[in-house]
Request: fold
Amino acid sequence: MSFASDRLVQEHDLIERMIAVLNRAVEKLESGEAVPPELFFQVVDFIRNFADHTHHAKEEDVLFRLMEERGIPRDGGPVGVMLIEHDHGREFTRGLEEAARRLQNGDQNAIPDIISNARGYAQLLTEHIYKENNILYPMGNRVFTPEDQQWLEKEFERVDKEKIGEETIRKYHTMVEELEKQIG
Ligand SMILES: [Fe+2]
Ligand SMILES: [Fe+2]
Reply:
C-alpha cells in the first residue's frame, strides 16, 4: 500500500545522506583534518531550503494540519513535539552557519562550535526522522481517507512547486552526491 507520506520518507532518505556527510566532516575536524568552510555552507543551504523551507513546510502546513483536522491534537501530543524539534533544528543550523563563517574568517576557535552544532543537528534530525517514519506518519495514515491521501499528494506537489521547483530539487540531489564523493 502506498501513502502520500512515502514522498516525505524519500525526502528523509536524502536528508539522512546529507547528515552522514555532515557527520563525516565532523569526524575529520575532530581528528585534526581541515574541512573547507564552504562544505558547511552547502550543508546549511541544503538544510534551509530543502529540509526546512520545503520538507518541513509540507509537514507543518499540510500533513500536520490535516492530522489535527482528523482529531490528532497538535499541542501536548506528538505533532507538537515534532514542531518543537523543527525549531531546535533551526537553532543548530544558525549556530553552524555562524561558526562556519568564523572559521572562514580564520578563527580556529570556531571549530568546537561547528562540531557541537553539527553533532546536535545530526542527532536531533536522525531521531526526528525515525519518529516521523515509524510513529507520526503511520498515525496519520490510520485516520486519513483515500480522498485525504489524494489531497495530500496534490498539496505536496503544490508546495514543491511554490517553494523550490523541480530544477532546484534536482540541484540538491546532485549536491548530496557531489559532497558524498568529496568527503569520501
Ligand atoms: Fe519533521
Ligand atoms: Fe520530516
